[in-house]
Amino acid sequence: MKEGQNGIFYITGESKAAVSTSPFLEGLRQRGYEVLYLVDPIDEYMVQQLKEYDGKKLVSASKEGLDLGETEDEKKHKEEEKARFEPLCKLVKDVLGDKVEKVCVSYRISESPCVLVTSEHGWTANMERIMKAQALRDNSMTSYMVSKKTMEVNPTNEIIKELRNKAEVDQSDKTVKDLIWLLYETSLLTSGFNLEDSSQFATRIHRMIKIGLTIDDVEGEGDDDLPALVDTPTGNETNTKMEEVD
Asked: Please, what are the domains in the chain?
């Protein structure tokens, strides 16, 4: 373990390939911390009982409350960023409703715009997958133990920065709201969860592609449940609209 690492960090998943590309590792890698890859189903049950080893607490990289051993300057900077992004976090929570328990600023990620973490004592995304695969599972228990998700946003990511800027101009902008939903749905995938409605996610992606190709919707083909991401651009507006979506 690197000097200063205050816990044994681990991440669970379906395979080494899946966990090695997880956004949860970005902040830990940036600090040079070691992380255990636990990819066997039994590992999920094991870490529930083995709380610590050799005086070091086992800490999940995908659960809330991750302590990266920040310096006082880093903590001060984090509080400043938290204040700056508080209006955006509130807007994201309002848009997503009960899909997430809360939205906050995080430094566990250094490249990705956002991730979905679970509560310290709840199931991980991988544990949810394992339990849903059980042939004799208790559905009432599954619904009770389903993970309460917290959305953590990366204040250094350009997408989040631009989203904050657009939200400051007009919080009712339908582009902002649709992009929030896209960020949530992509975070489900990158954080190891299953999409609740893959067809709706695909529809949003297809509309973004149409914007890029300047394709008008044929009358009667629109989806009443999903307003267009932005008005279809014309002429010289195409590049500007694509930049806004990016």
From this structure: 76-196 (1.20.120.790)
